[in-house]
Structure to design on (234 residues):
């Protein structure tokens, strides 16, 4: 329930409506008058319709930096978030230990593993959107149905329309470039994803032109990549 308190002198417009059960109502008179309140409070319920009206005024945006492991999602996402002065979310931080353990052992995740993880990410994005904040997420988001889950962070999103406050940018690079990055990272012990899972990720990557996914060349310098993303989105 929301309430409105009034105090002071206000000009009100009163409509006098005559109702006929067959023809409906018609305005018979319009009266303007001043009303003085020492204190008056009215209440009205919050309905799903009123919440939808509030949601329609969303000003936030979620930018998902997507791509296979080793494409630079965390590096580029962090840099972009700093430029935009907003939060950065790393999808890897949201994986349960069971998922991380599977990947450490070189076992590709199934949809049963991924869907709850993606729903958690969707909920995190929605919190930012409902607060009218911009947020950057680094997430593989390899398949169309995975991206649809993330798009639904926008409470006004219509499934299949691809019109959402959640935008996707693919970090595009040749397989051999990414493989070299993963080998280097594995040697440094900086990530739980082994290089041998790269091919399974490349095989899983689905791109539908109708989605309007933006692409940037991930083989250029990080600064140039971030500048390219800004030019595409903003």
């Amino acid at each position: 329930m929301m309430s409105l308190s009034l105090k002071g002198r206000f000009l009100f417009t009163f409509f006098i409506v005559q109702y006929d059960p067959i023809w409906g109502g018609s305005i018979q008179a319009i009266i303007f008058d001043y009303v003085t309140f020492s204190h008056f409070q009215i209440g009205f319920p919050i309905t799903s319709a009123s919440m939808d009206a509030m949601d329609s005024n969303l000003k936030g945006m979620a930018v998902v930096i997507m791509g296979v492991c080793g494409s630079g999602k965390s590096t580029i996402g962090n840099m972009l978030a700093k430029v935009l002065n907003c939060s950065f979310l790393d999808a890897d931080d949201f994986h349960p230990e069971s998922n991380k353990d599977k990947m450490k052992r070189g076992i590709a995740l199934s949809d049963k593993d991924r869907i709850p993880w993606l729903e958690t990410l969707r909920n995190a994005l929605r919190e930012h959107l409902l607060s009218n904040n911009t947020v950057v997420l680094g997430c593989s988001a390899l398949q169309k149905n995975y991206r649809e889950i993330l798009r639904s962070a926008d409470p006004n999103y219509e499934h299949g329309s691809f019109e959402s406050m959640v935008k996707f940018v693919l970090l595009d690079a040749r397989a051999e470039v990414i493989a070299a990055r993963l080998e280097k990272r594995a040697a440094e012990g900086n990530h739980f994803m082994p290089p041998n899972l790269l091919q399974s990720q490349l095989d899983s990557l689905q791109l539908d032109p109708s989605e309007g996914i933006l692409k940037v060349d991930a083989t250029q310098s990080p600064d140039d990549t971030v500048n390219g993303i800004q030019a595409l989105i903003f």
